[in-house]
Design a protein that fits this description.
single chain; alpha+beta; 21% helix
Length: 158
């Protein structure tokens, strides 16, 4: 990734209220194991079928923070896109996500606050049965317009 030019996402003046993005993710074993390894999270509810079968969940669930990671990637890669930064989140997880689930996400711009360089997104995620697994709002700073390459970036060269 170093040395590669990447296109920035939508700047604040290019975003419109009502703009939407929809995508889906499938929770695969490799993704779950990588997440649990990176976070050193050994919660038996996430990985032990014998333990999870004795809980009201009946089977292992996906960590809610991993579900939020899917939401975060929508912001980082699509709406507004690369260069964006989530500064506030208010999310609920009304139903657990299970291993191998297909989760559909919908994100919509509900407000734009140009003076604060912020947009508000409404986010909802659904499982295969159509039940909500995540819902809420995010406050996001879209990418900033970079300074010209000719002015500041070259001032240290003689």
């Amino acid at each position: 990734m170093l040395g590669r030019k990447r296109k920035l996402g939508k700047k604040i003046n290019d975003i419109k209220t009502g703009e939407k993005f929809t995508t889906s993710f499938t929770v695969e074993d490799r993704d779950l194991l990588m997440y649990l390894g990176l976070t050193d999270d050994a919660n038996p509810l996430y990985i032990q079928h014998d333990y999870a079968s004795q809980t009201p969940f009946k089977r292992p669930v996906v960590p809610t923070v991993m579900v939020f990671g899917m939401v975060s990637s929508i912001v980082s890669m699509h709406l507004p896109g690369p260069g964006s930064h989530i500064i506030q989140q208010n999310l609920e997880y009304p139903k657990p996500v299970y291993h191998y689930a297909d989760v559909r996400f919908h994100a919509e711009v509900t407000a734009i606050h140009k003076e604060d360089h912020q947009v508000e997104l409404q986010v909802v995620g659904y499982d295969e049965e159509g039940d909500e697994v995540v819902k809420g709002t995010l406050i996001v700073q879209p990418p900033y317009e970079p300074d010209s390459m000719n002015s500041i970036s070259l001032e240290n060269f003689y």
